[in-house]
């Protein structure tokens, strides 16, 4: 079971290691019963084999082949860590560190080269079966994401996530995945970071780079939610006997209010509602967050539009989408200060939120501009999820530290401080956090930063023919951390 017994955990937390100096210090106490540690990757970032054995192209393959300068050093995911061939080395690393779970994603175009079930690529099906079997043989439980951004190109040609038909196409793909792997996979993520996916339509930081800010993002988000809802209902109808648990991996950078004025407190709340809330509210409470509806409708009207840029669900859709996550997947990297103020492109999700988000100059910088180190933000994000969405089991599905291959000690600090905050959320706030997957087990293709930015706790020699994996200090640190924090059986 994955559901921690908090009461027991609490007793042990306060009794273990307090007075006996042969025992680890108080911060090194146990985790709740059933708590699981794991590590994450995503298909495009690690697999390579971009056209191997009948795989079709994805929007990332396509975009980067056409626009190589889009990525630092003209890197792309054609070969990446070549996990397509060396997945056993990934599993060996996971096992060596001592993880109980591995979160990875299935590349839709590897199993369905043109996105549709009319043509199934058996080699792709076999690949994921092999990965899953290798994990299970090593006692590691798979957590599988169905969509981590690599849409089959032929589906982009009909508009991708802007086309309402995508909801059914995604559901048919998911159906095949549940049917094929569902007896072995019990933890599913439909969509990784719907907000980032929407960003590929509303911004220029991810494929398909449409930059339809303030319109395309909301429309893509709408269809992502419809796809998720339909998929969950399908699972309930056809696969509930498999006993799996579904979620999305939600993302967002929470805001601390700049001051305790009602304006700043409300602004910090909107920061949450326009990120985690955008996708969390429809699946956990029904429909978009009221404040999001209000602000986007009002701005749309002021712009002279007849219809809101934020689409409306039908009553039936609201019902279909509501109540469709069994647990809450939370990706956390960074946080902001927030105050009232309309900033960002016009129109845009950011501007609609009317929050001015900014980093504290004292928060440590990292190898990437979009993140600073602010461990308290993880506890804040967990608290906000609890406050907004009730006592749903939470799994931190991503959390990690980027460097240029030079700051592994800082990575250790990052994990230590973030895990401490997560423990506060569990033991001080009594929140039902049941697992933690770091990003990432191996250095990999970090989107626009290519291979220049590394998140792995295992180094990959990208110049060697078999992409040699070598555990970093942070991997040994993690191994030790888990051993010290013995999990209750
Ligand atoms: C996650 O995204 C992804 O799930 C994972 O694939 C990725 O490797 C990992 O984090 C580390 O990045 O350039 O200022 O416009 C994290 C959320 C959303 C962060 C998009 C970067 C672009 C910010 N990402 N965002 S900016």
UniProtKB/TrEMBL annotation:
The keyword Metal-binding does not apply. Residues 1-17 form the signal peptide. The lineage of its organism: Eukaryota, Metazoa, Ecdysozoa, Arthropoda, Hexapoda. GO terms for biological process: carbohydrate metabolic process. It comes from Lygus lineolaris. Keywords: Glycoprotein, Glycosidase, Hydrolase, Signal. Homodimer. One of its GO terms (molecular function) is beta-glucosidase activity. Coiled coil: none annotated. SUPFAM superfamilies: (Trans)glycosidases (SSF51445). PROSITE patterns: GLYCOSYL_HYDROL_F1_2. Belongs to the glycosyl hydrolase 1 family. Pfam families: Glyco_hydro_1. This is Beta glucosidase 6. The keyword Nuclease does not apply.
């Amino acid at each position: 079971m994955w559901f921690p017994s908090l009461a027991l955990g609490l007793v042990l937390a306060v009794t273990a290691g307090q007075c006996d100096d042969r025992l680890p210090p108080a911060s090194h106490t146990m985790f709740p019963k059933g708590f699981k540690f794991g590590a994450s990757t995503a298909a495009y970032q690690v697999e390579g084999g971009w056209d191997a054995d009948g795989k079709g192209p994805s929007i990332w393959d396509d975009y980067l082949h056409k626009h190589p300068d889009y990525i630092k050093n003209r890197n792309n995911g054609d070969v990446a860590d070549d996990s397509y061939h060396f997945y056993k080395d990934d599993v060996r690393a996971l096992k060596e560190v001592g993880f109980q779970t591995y979160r990875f994603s299935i590349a839709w175009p590897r199993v369905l080269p043109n996105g549709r079930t009319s043509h199934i690529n058996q080699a792709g099906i076999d690949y994921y079966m092999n990965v899953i079997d290798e994990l299970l043989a090593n006692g590691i439980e798979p957590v599988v994401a169905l969509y981590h951004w690599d849409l089959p190109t032929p589906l982009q040609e009909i508009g991708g996530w802007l086309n309402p038909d995508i909801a059914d196409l995604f559901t048919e793909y998911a159906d095949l995945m549940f049917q094929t792997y569902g007896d072995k996979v019990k933890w599913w993520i439909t969509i990784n970071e719907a907000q980032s996916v929407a960003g590929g339509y509303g911004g220029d930081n991810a494929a398909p780079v449409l930059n339809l800010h303030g319109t395309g993002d909301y429309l893509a988000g709408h269809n992502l939610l419809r796809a998720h809802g339909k998929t969950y209902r399908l699972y309930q109808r056809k696969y509930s006997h498999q006993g799996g648990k579904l979620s999305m991996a939600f993302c967002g950078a929470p805001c601390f209010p700049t001051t305790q004025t009602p304006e700043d407190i409300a602004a910090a709340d909107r920061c949450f509602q326009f990120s985690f809330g955008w996708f969390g509210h429809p699946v956990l409470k029904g429909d978009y967050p009221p404040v999001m509806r209000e602000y986007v409708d009002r701005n749309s009207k002021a712009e002279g539009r007849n219809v809101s840029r934020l689409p409306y669900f039908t009553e039936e859709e609201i019902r279909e989408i509501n109540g469709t996550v069994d647990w809450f997947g939370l990706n956390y990297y960074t946080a902001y200060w927030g105050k009232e103020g309309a900033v960002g492109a016009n129109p845009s999700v950011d501007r609609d939120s009317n929050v001015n988000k900014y980093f504290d100059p004292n928060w440590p910088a990292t190898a990437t501009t979009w993140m600073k180190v602010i461990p308290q933000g993880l506890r804040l994000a967990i608290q906000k999820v609890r406050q907004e969405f009730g006592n749903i089991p939470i799994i931190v599905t991503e959390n990690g530290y980027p460097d240029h291959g030079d700051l592994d000690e800082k990575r250790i600090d990052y994990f230590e401080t973030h895990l401490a905050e997560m423990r506060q959320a569990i033991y001080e706030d009594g929140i039902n956090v049941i697992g933690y997957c770091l990003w990432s087990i191996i250095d990999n293709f970090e989107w626009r930063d290519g291979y220049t930015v590394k998140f792995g706790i295992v180094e990959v020699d990208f110049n060697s023919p078999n992409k040699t994996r070598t555990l970093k200090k942070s991997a040994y640190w993690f191994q030790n951390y888990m051993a010290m924090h013995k999990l209750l059986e």
